[in-house]
């Protein structure tokens, strides 16, 4: 009876995993299929998943500056996302370490205040952020988006890094300081190497938020030379070059950097880096 229950549970588990994978991957297969179809086939009343005559025409059109300034939008998005993620990691590491290790007056209130910001929806922050950005003469600049994304992602960065720092034995840091290291040296030589999984997670999280954002980019950016990919894709809908194949091709190309970034940093997503660091 026990064996039958285990088999049934395993079958249910496999079915749920298969269903999850199918529902996750299927939209991307449809996007790829549409991107490889001709215009006539993409608009056919009898759709099929496998293109009858695959073509790379739509990908070449998207990468053609005369049709769509993909590379301009791409480099704008990359610069903003990378700068935001890097600053979030640097500032978040120092701030989270102070929450996790240092004792000072008002620390608890600072922590609660940071998490309180995260409770507000991004829509509610549009107006005050817009007022601050315009008052600082940063409207329609990449810096305005970097500042905005830092405000949105910093609470989660501090929370994730702070919780991870608390898992590192304090005795490792105490031993390092006894050997002559100061607090900053302890952070960069002890804490950061042991926290690479959390730091990589924060970097990818912030990068994805900045890379995929549409709301704030559409509010703070108006000139084409500063537009990001999400805004560029939305503008493609309203141009004479709009066809489904190009939209799907551009969408797939937009997703490539995030997939590559995750693949390169996947090795850091391991646990137990500090296991055995201190013996009882």
Secondary-structure blueprint of this entry?
Layout: H1 2-35, H2 39-42, H3 57-62, H4 70-101, H5 107-118, H6 126-135, H7 142-165, H8 170-178, H9 183-194, H10 196-212, H11 215-220, H12 229-236, H13 244-265
Helix pairs in contact: 1-13, 4-7, 4-10, 5-7, 7-10, 8-9, 10-13, 12-13
Radius of gyration, rounded? 24 Å
Compute the average pLDDT.
83
Could you name the CATH class of the largest domain?
Answer: Mainly Alpha
The profile of the biggest β sheet is:
none
Helix count from the secondary structure assignment: 13
Note the gap between the termini. Answer: 44 Å
CATH topology call of the largest domain: MetI-like fold
Categorize the overall geometry.
Answer: globular
CATH superfamily of the largest domain: MetI-like
How many domains, as an integer? 2
Q: How many individual β-strands?
A: 0
Strand content: under 5%
CATH architecture of the largest domain: Orthogonal Bundle
Unreliable segments of 5+ consecutive residues: 270-280
Helix content: over 70%
- Pattern of helices and strands: HHHHHHHHHHHHH
InterPro entries: BP-dep_ABC_trans_perm, MetI-like, MetI-like_sf
Keywords: Cell membrane, Membrane, Sugar transport, Transmembrane, Transmembrane helix, Transport
Protein name: Multiple sugar transport system permease protein
Organism: Lihuaxuella thermophila
